[in-house]
Amino acid sequence: MSVKTGTTGTQGTLGTTGTRALPAGKRDLVPVVPSVPCVPVVPVFTSDDWRHLSAGEASQLLAAETDAYRRELCWDVREAWRPVETARGTGALPGYVVRDEAGTIRGWTCFLDHRGLRQVAMLVSDTALATTMLVERIVTAPGAAAVRGEIVCVRDAAPGLADALRARQFDVSAYRYLSLEWSGRSLDGPNGARFAKTDRSWRPDDLDAVIALCARAYADSTDVRAFAPAGTPAEWLDYITTMVSGTGCGRFMPDASFLVEGDDAGTLDAAVLTTDLGCGTAHIAQVVVDPAARGRGLGRRLVEAVIDHARAHGSARVTLLVADTNRAAGRLYDAAGFVDRAQHIVGVRMRD
Asked: Closest Cα partner for 95 from 68, 62, 123, 114?
C-alpha cells in the first residue's frame, strides 16, 4: 500500500486516499490500514478407498497403530491383525484414507459388515476435519443401507470423534482404559486388592450359562456398549463365542476366568472372563453379575481372583475397560488400585 504525503482529507476523518488528516501544523500524515475481514483458510482434504493404497503405505499405517497399542495399552495386536493386510489387499476389508493437498495421509479407518452390523475396527486422524470426513464415509459407504446399525469402538486417537458421531445420531460414551501394575509394590496392603478364592474356573460347557447370565445382567442397562447392542440371544452367543475362541480381544485365559455358581443347577451368579493381550498383560474382558446377586461383593471378589492369578503366573499388570458412565464399577476398580492409562470412544447407532 502506498502512502501519500500532503494534507488530504478532513480533520479527524478518513480521506479517500486512506490517510487521516492531523491537526493544523502537523504536516505528516499517518497511513490507515483498512479493516479487512479475516477469512479462515479451509484446508482442502480428499478421501479415497484405502484398498487403493500401496502395500507400503498400508503397512506404515498398521505399523504405527500396532506400536500405539503396545505403547499406550500394553497390548500386542500383531497376531490378531495379521489378516488385515491380506483382507485389504483382496478388497474384503473396506476402509478410507483422508489426504491433504500435499498428499499426506491425515486420517484413516477400516471396518467390516458382520452379522448385519457395520463394525469399525480402527479410526485414526490428526485433525477434526479428517475425523468428520471418515465418519461420513463410514455411514455412507456401499452397503450402508443393508446393515441394521454401526458400532465404533476405537482407541481415542481422532480429534473430535465423539462430536462427529453425535452429529450422525450415534449414542456415544467414553470408556476408561484402566491398568493395575504391581512392579515394585505389594498388593496385600490397603493400596492393593485383597485376594480371594472363587468357586471355580471356566469350563467349556459354561458357554450357555454365561450367555444367559449376560442377557440377564444387561437387560436393563443403559450404557452405550460395543457388544450385543440389541441384547439378542444371537448377539450374546456371537460375543461370548468370539471372545473364548478368537484373538480380537486377546487370547482367552480359561484358568484366569472365574465363575460363581447359582443356587439352581446350571446357573451362574457371576463371572469374569480374562484374556491375554501379550506384553505381560492380563485383560479383564467381561465382569458380569446377576441382578439378583448384586450387593454381595461378587464383582470385587472376581476381580481380586484375576489379579491374584495374573500376578502368580508372571503377568506384569491387569487391564480393563469401563464406561465412564458406569460410576459404581469405576469406584470398585479405583478402590482396587486401578489407574487410568488411556481412553476408548464407543459409538453405537441402531436402526429402528
From this structure: 123
